[in-house]
Amino acid sequence: MMDRKVLDEFNAQINEEAFSAYLYLAMAAWFESVNLPGFAKWMRVQSQEETAHAMKFFSFIVERGGKVALKAIAQPTAKWKTPLEAFKAALAHEEHITARIGTLMDLSIAVKDHASASFLKWFVDEQVEEEAHADSIVQKLVLAGDSTGALFMLDRELGARS
Q1: Out of 4, 17, 78, 151, which residue is the most buried by the measure of CB atoms under 10 Å away?
Q2: Residue 64 burial class via C-beta count within 10 angstroms: exposed 0-12, middle 13-18, buried 19 and up
Q3: 78: which DSSP letter?
Q4: Residue 138 contacts residue 91 (beta carbons within 8 Å)
Q5: How far apart are CA 86 and CA 71, in angstroms?
Q6: Cβ contacts of residue 103 below 8 Å, gap of 6+?
């Protein structure tokens, strides 16, 4: 059985992951609205990944005999001024999730919940990848500057994500 505080925080993390999925879906919709379908596809795939992350927490709670408690998902921002602004927001969000995972890991260790700490190890590693991907795109957008050609090349590159 899971420690009560760990269970509560894992349930809160389901909501964080669901919000992440919703945020990236909102970004996909915005990219579609500004005719950048490659960026939109990248965000759709990211949204699906975040839903899978929420389900990992869901399944772990169930496997440990805990009760899943779903809460309302907050409405995400739906509009950005530029693709760079959107990806800076995505990077900031991933940094927030990284901090949350770190807090969950610290809590699991503090209460000697080794199963939860072991489970979270995958998320610790995943967040390194998530931040690196978002940062890489931010850096490419910074390099592209006001070049429409570079923006469309990046759109094509991001559209190849599966």
Answers
A1: 17
A2: middle
A3: -
A4: yes
A5: 26
A6: 9
Which pLDDT value is given to residue 95?
98
pLDDT along the chain (162 residues), means of 10: 96 98 98 98 98 98 98 97 98 98 98 98 98 98 96 97 92
Contact between 134 and 94 under an 8 Å Cβ cutoff? The reply is yes
pLDDT computed for residue 1 by the predictor:
83
- pTM (whole model) above 0.85: yes
Q: How far is CA 10 from CA 27, 49, 127, 133, in A?
A: 25, 18, 16, 25
Structure tokens at 106: 């610290």
Question: Mind giving me the DSSP string for 7-67?
Answer: HHHHHHHHHHHHHHHHHHHHHHHHHHHTT-HHHHHHHHHHHHHHHHHHHHHHHHHHHTT--
H helices present in 81-113, as ranges: 83-110
10-20: per-residue pLDDT in tens? 999 999 999 99
Alpha-carbon distances, residue 72 vs 12, 15, 46, 82 (angstroms): 11, 8, 21, 29
Q: Which domain holds residue 70?
A: 4-159
Residue type for position 52: A
Tens-digit pLDDT profile for residues 40-58: 999 999 999 999 999 999 9
Instruction: Give the type of residue at 92.
Output: A
